[in-house]
Amino acid sequence: MVLLDGTSHLLSVCTFASFCPLSTAIGFVLSLLGSILLFIGPLSVFAILYVLGTVISLIATGFLIGFGTQLKLMFKSKRIIATVVLFASMVLVFVGAFVLHIDIFCLIFVIIQYLAFTYYSLTYIPGATSMIKGLVGF
């Protein structure tokens, strides 16, 4: 079976497509648990769960379009800034949790990570980024 990225896989397209919502749900639950632990648990566990949730949510789209295609699309000109900010903020969440041990630093970069992921996701919807830029005033 050949997927959209031109690679062949042993699993069917239906199987891959069913992994997308499952991965998205798992990513959401992990990020939600991490967010709860920001206030009641160790900062390190929060950082791991939240960033892992984001990564799993990113992987979810790879099940639909193929992982090779997704990697190529992530670095197209309209997504490059969001992609770089997203990955940088993930790293900085870990820096805040494991090196600096500062809650507010982690919270700031989680917010930046969330905004970057949202913008990254919107770039796949035709016209969505233009609408957001218009609302924000860019």
Automatic annotation (TrEMBL):
Domain of life (superkingdom): Eukaryota
Q: Which Pfam families match?
A: Got1
* Spans traversing the lipid bilayer: 12-40, 46-68, 80-101, 107-125
List GO BP terms, alphabetically. Answer: protein transport; vesicle-mediated transport
Q: Which UniProt keywords are listed?
A: Golgi apparatus, Membrane, Protein transport, Transmembrane, Transmembrane helix, Transport
Q: How does it sit in the membrane?
A: Multi-pass membrane protein
Q: What is its main location?
A: Golgi
Where is the protein found, in the record's own terms? Golgi apparatus membrane; Membrane
User: Which cellular component appears as one GO term in the record?
Assistant: Golgi membrane
Known role: Nonessential protein required for the fusion of transport vesicles derived from the endocytic pathway with the Golgi complex.
Q: Which family does it belong to?
A: Belongs to the SFT2 family.
Indicate what this protein is called per its UniProt record: Protein transport protein SFT2
What species was this sequence derived from? Collybiopsis confluens
